[in-house]
Amino acid sequence: MRKLLRFLLILFLCLSAAASAQQGYKPSESNLKAREHFKDMKFGMFIHWGIYSTLGDGEWVMDIKKIPYNDYKRLADFFNPQAFNAKEWVDLAKRAGMKYITVTSRHHDGFSMFDTKQSDYNIVKATPYKKDPMKELAEECQKQGIELRFYYSLLDWGRADYAFKSPIVNGAPEKGDWNSYINFMKAQLTELITNYPGVKGIWFDGHWDRKNANWHYDEIYGLIHKLGPDIMIGNNHHLAPIPGEDFQAFEKDLPGNNKTGFSGDAKIGELPLETCETMNGSWGFNINDRNYKSVKELVHYLVNAAGLDANFLLNVGPMPNGKIQPEFVDTLGKIGAWIDKNGETIYGTRGTVVKAQTWGTLTAKAKTVYAHLLNPVKEGNQILIPGFKVKPKSVTAFNGGAKLKYKKDKTGLIVHLDQLPADEIDRIIKITY
Ligand code: H79
Asked: Signal peptide position in this chain (predicted)?
C-alpha cells in the first residue's frame, strides 16, 4: 500500500513537472551538434560565487544561520572583489583541462551577480565593486575558447513575489505573485542570453523547493530556445528529463547512484549527462572546510563519469576578494597535469561500452577502447573485459606502449597485466580493433 502511494506520488510529481514542459520540443540541428560537442568536452568548472562568499560559510548561510533577508542584504555593501581577474579563472580552468565554465548568475539568496535591469539587488547597483564580472568572464571565455554557461536559481529566498515557504495552491504560491516572478525570471534569462557573448547553456536549480508548483517551463524553455536554439538547458530537479531539456544534471552522484538521497527519482534518460561535485564539501567559499578531496579521488570521479558517458562539472567557490583559494589551484594544476598525459582516453570518448567493473571502467572512441584500472585487481594479475566480442588489433599499456598478453574467449577479453606499469591513479590499457 505504501509502495503504491509512493509510486502515485512520484507519478504525480513527474506529471506535474511535465505538464508545464516544452511539449513537442524538437531540438534544432545546432542544438544536436552542441550536445555532441558537450559530450566531447567531458570536464567543466562549476563556480559558486556570491555575496554569501563574504561570510566564508557556504551559499546556504542565510538559510542555515537564519539571517533575516533584510540583514543579509547588507552583505552587498561588503562585497568588493578587487582581486577578481577573469583571465586568472579562465587560465586556471584551461590549465586543469576543463573545457567549459558554469557560473552562478543568481543563487537562492536572489542576488544577481550580473548587470540586470530587473532588480537593483545586483552586483553593479548594490555593491561598491560596481562592475559586472560576468561580462568580463564571458569575454575572457570567448577569447580563450572556453564555453560559458549560467547557473540560474529558480528558488528565491527573498522576493515577495516568490513568497518563500508560502503554500502552493493550484500550482502557484498562495501569498506571492507567481506571474510576476515567472516574468521576472524570463526577463533575466533574456538578459543573460542576449547581453553576454557566447552563452551555451542554462543550469536551473531549486525546482525541488516547489515540486508541485507550475514552473511554466513551457514558456521559460521555449523562450530560451527561441533566443538561442543551440543553448542547452539542464535542470537539477532530481527527476527524469522533461521535454525542452537538452542535458540531464546530477548533483554529487554519478548517474545511477543515489548517495545523496535526492537522485532517487532521476531515471537516466536519453540526453547527455553531467554530474557535479565539490572539491571539499562546499559549493560556496567555506573558510572552515578543509575536507579537500585528493587529486586521485577527483581524477577517479572524472574517469568514472566518462565511463558512464557523463561530463564532470567540478566546483570551486572563489573567495570574496575574487581569488580562488590556493588549495584548489594546486589540486586543479595536478589534475591538469594528469589530463595532459591522459586526455586522449577522456576527451571525445563515449562510455557505457561495458558497464563498470570491480577493477575500474572503460571509455571508447573510434575503434579504440581504454580500460582504466582504478582499483586493485582482485584475482591473478589479469582482468576480464566481459562481452568484448571483436578481435583486438593491439593491446598495449597506454603509458609507454608495452605490448600486453591477452586471450579472447567466450566470456570476453582477458588481459594480462605483467607488462602494465604501476600507477598511483589509473593504469590504462589501450585496445584497438
Ligand atoms: O548550488 C548548489 C547547492 O546550493 C544546491 N545545488 C548545488 C549545485 C543545492 N541546494 N540544495 N541542495 C542542493 C540540496 C539540499 C541540501 C540541504 Fe542543506 C540539506 C539544504 C538544507 C539541508 C546542504 C546542507 C545545504 C545546506 C545544508
From this structure: 1-21
